[in-house]
Amino acid sequence: MLADLTIKDFLAETAGSAPVPGGGSISALNGAIAAALTEMVAHLTVGKKKYAEVEGQMKTIAIEAALIRERLTEYIDKDSEAYDRVFSAFKLPKETHDEQVIRTNAIQSATKEAAIVPMRAEEIGSVMETIIYVAHKGNQNAVTDACVAMMAARTCVLGALLNVRINLTSIQDEVFVGMMRKKADELEANAIRVEQKLLDWVKTKL
Question: Is the peptide bond before 21 cis (omega within 30 degrees of 0)?
Answer without folding.
Answer: yes
